[in-house]
Every structure is written in structure tokens, then in C-alpha cells.
């Protein structure tokens, strides 16, 4: 089995980032967008094809929740696929010729490292609070979208602790700053999680309907149809609040409110048999079906914008 059909430690992923950018300078550019609470670098890979104007861009982040190992595995898979199949596969070529693709492979490096060394089921980052012995905030509750209302917790010991204030966590702030400074080109935001096989879109922070709900729903429907058709697997889709639960402070809702008109959270395999502990032999299928969903949505967005 290949490198991409295994899970990798944080150190290995940093090595991979270095090698991948060095080996493909014509397509990949390395951008440092900030650092984590424990001072790990937050690297974004910018993928681009041949220049074509006007430039648009899309964003994919992985590993916001530490224990969801299939998520960073997908970001690596995606980058490798883009590099290998540019000018060979129509969809990825079309994507790269029309959009710069920014990929953040590990949004929560401290938490990810902790799941490899101390506690496999860790979810949050590793920031410390002055007034509590408990560690970490849920980075997907730390964005400024109905921050810390119902569906998040003010208690530092809880799994969905929202942090001291919106963007109190350096990882969330780095992502928010980068997206703010690129908001005029950014047309599509994707955040990769696991598990439960769902394609979610705004809103999760309230039961309100997104202004372009119908478009978002159609894109998600098309993506789910392609997964079913090509991989015989079922993905649910819909607005987060109605499809799973109210969960304020998420990156997808925040990015959408910033003005990025197409925003999705993917929950990859499985449906609970292994949960976060998805065995490596399932990585290929999980990533391929997610890839077809990314392609479907990105090509749809290119057509619309
Ligand atoms: O609760 C979450 O943050 C995500 N589910 S997970 O099991 N991976 O933790 C869902 C996120 C959906 N989007 C927002 N809540 N904004
Ligand atoms: Zn998650």
C-alpha cells in the first residue's frame, strides 16, 4: 500500500509538506499563515495550474478536530491527486485552471500530535486557561458565528468548549485572518471532518435558511448522487442545524457570513462501525468518494461564478 493509504504522524506530515512543495515548485507554493498554541507552524499549500484570469480561489482545511484522522489523510490524498492528474484528468485540470486551491492539511497540529502520543480520542486544541485545569477549546466552536450560543459550552472541561472569545485560539484566528484577506477571490470553503457521511452547509449556528439555500442544496445533492453512483455509498446532506444539530461558532458558517458564497463541511466515513478509528484499509475508498464530492461541488461553483 502507498504512503497515502496510511495515517501519518505530525512530523511525517511536515516532512511530506516540505518534500511535496520542493518537488513541484511549478504547481505548489508554501504559505505560513500562523502558528498553533504550542508554536507549530500552520502551513497552507497553494495549488495552481496555468494562469487564467480572472482568478478565483477555493479553500480546503483538514484536521480541525484532532481525532478525525481520515481528514488530514484526505488533504494529503487531494494534493497528491491534483499534482499527479493535472492535465490528465479533466475535472482536476478544470479546477486548477480556474481556481487557486488553498489546502491546510492540519488545522489543529497540537491536538493531532496529542492523539498520536497521549490520547487517541482528543478533539480540541491544546490551549491552557488561566482559571481551569482543563485543556483545549473546540476550534469548530471558536469562530464568530452566533458564538457560544446553544450547541457550544462555556465550560473549559467540555468537548465543545467555545474558548474565551471568538478567535481566542491562534489556529482559528490564523484561518480567519487568511480568509478575510482573500475574501474577494474565495468562492468556495470546504472543511473536512469525520465521521457520519454527511455533506453539510449553512447554517449550523441557527435554524435560519441560507440565502442561496437552494444552490447549496443542489450542489450537495449532486455530490451525494455521484458518491452513490460511483462508490455505492450513501451520504446525507442538508443544512447543519437541521441535519445533525445546532452547533454555533463553526468555520463553515463564519466563512459563509464573511461572503464566501459556497461553504460546506464534509463528514467522511464511516457511519459508526469504526468511527474515528477508521482502519487504514478504508482510506482509499473514503478519500476517493470525498474527492468526487469535492470535484462535483467545485466544478458547479466554477460554472456559477
Ligand atoms: O460538531 C462539529 O463541529 C462537526 N461534527 S464533528 O462530529 N466532526 O465534530 C459538524 C460541524 C458542522 N458545522 C458547524 N457546526 N458549523
Ligand atoms: Zn469534526
TrEMBL record:
Domain Peptidase M14: 6-301
Source taxon at top rank: Eukaryota
Cofactor(s) the record lists: Zn(2+)
Keyword Secreted: no
A GO biological process held by the record: proteolysis
Keywords: Carboxypeptidase, Disulfide bond, Hydrolase, Metal-binding, Metalloprotease, Protease, Signal, Zinc
GO cellular component: extracellular space
Active site: 267 (proton donor/acceptor)
GO molecular function: metallocarboxypeptidase activity; zinc ion binding
Keyword Signal: yes
Entry similarity comment: Belongs to the peptidase M14 family.
Protein name per the record: Peptidase M14 domain-containing protein
Organism (species): Megalops atlanticus (Tarpon)
Shown chain mapped onto the complete sequence: 116 to 420 of 421
Amino acid at each position: 500500500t502507498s504512503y497515502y493509504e496510511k495515517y501519518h504522524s505530525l512530523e511525517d506530515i511536515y516532512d511530506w509538506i516540505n518534500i511535496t512543495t520542493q518537488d513541484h515548485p511549478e504547481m505548489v507554493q508554501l504559505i505560513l499563515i500562523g502558528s498553533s498554541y504550542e508554536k507549530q507552524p500552520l502551513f497552507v499549500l497553494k495549488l495552481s495550474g496555468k494562469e487564467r484570469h480572472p482568478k478565483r480561489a477555493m479553500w480546503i482545511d483538514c484536521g480541525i478536530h484532532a481525532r478525525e484522522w481520515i481528514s488530514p489523510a484526505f488533504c494529503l490524498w487531494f494534493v497528491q491527486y491534483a499534482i499527479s492528474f493535472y492535465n490528465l484528468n479533466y475535472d482536476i485540470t478544470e479546477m486548477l485552471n480556474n481556481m487557486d486551491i488553498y489546502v491546510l492539511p492540519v488545522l489543529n497540529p497540537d491536538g493531532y500530535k496529542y492523539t498520536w502520543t497521549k490520547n487517541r480520542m482528543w478533539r480540541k486544541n491544546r490551549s491552557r486557561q488561566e482559571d481551569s485545569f482543563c485543556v483545549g477549546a473546540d476550534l469548530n466552536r471558536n469562530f464568530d458565528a452566533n458564538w457560544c450560543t446553544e450547541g457550544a459550552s462555556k465550560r473549559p472541561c467540555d468537548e465543545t468548549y467555545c474558548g474565551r472569545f471568538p478567535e481566542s485560539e491562534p489556529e482559528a484566528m490564523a484561518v480567519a485572518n487568511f480568509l478575510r484577506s482573500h475574501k474577494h477571490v474565495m468562492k468556495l470553503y470546504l472543511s473536512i471532518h469525520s465521521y457520519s457521511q454527511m455533506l453539510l452547509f449553512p447554517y449550523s449556528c441557527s435554524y435560519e435558511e441560507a440565502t442561496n439555500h437552494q444552490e447549496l442544496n443542489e450542489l450537495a445533492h449532486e455530490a451525494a448522487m455521484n458518491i452513490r453512483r460511483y462508490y455505492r455509498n450513501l451520504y446525507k446532506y442538508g443544512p447543519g442545524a437541521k441535519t445533525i444539530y445546532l452547533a454555533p461558532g463553526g468555520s463553515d458558517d463564519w466563512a459563509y457570513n464573511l461572503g464566501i458564497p459556497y461553504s460546506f463541511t464534509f463528514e467522511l466515513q464511516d457511519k459508526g462501525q469504526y468511527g474515528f478509528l477508521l482502519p487504514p484499509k478504508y482510506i482509499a475508498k473514503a478519500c476517493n468518494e470525498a474527492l468526487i464530492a469535492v470535484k462535483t461541488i467545485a466544478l458547479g461553483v466554477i460554472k456559477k461564478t
